[in-house]
Design a protein that fits this description.
There is one protein chain. The protein is an all-alpha fold. The longest helix is centred in the N-terminal third of the chain and has 28 residues, at 3-30. It starts with a helix and ends with a helix. Helices cover 86% and strands 0% of the residues. The model has no long low-confidence stretch (mean pLDDT 93). The chain has two helices and no strands.
Length: 58
């Protein structure tokens, strides 16, 4: 087998993978951040505060 062609194919595959990874990173950077975690945290804190207020009131 020709080692030169094997090395060339490996380099092309490596460059394609790097290019695809960079394109994926750009796509992720373009997306708006998800607010799901903030909503879950907010609801959890609200339930905790309401529970404490009810415990103190009783």
């Amino acid at each position: 087998m020709n080692h030169s062609s094997k090395k060339q194919q490996h380099e092309q595959a490596r460059k394609k993978h790097k290019h695809d990874a960079q394109a994926h990173a750009r796509e992720l950077a373009r997306q708006k951040p998800s607010t799901t975690a903030a909503w879950v945290l907010g609801v959890g804190i609200t339930i905790l505060v309401v529970g404490v207020v009810l415990a103190l009131a009783l």
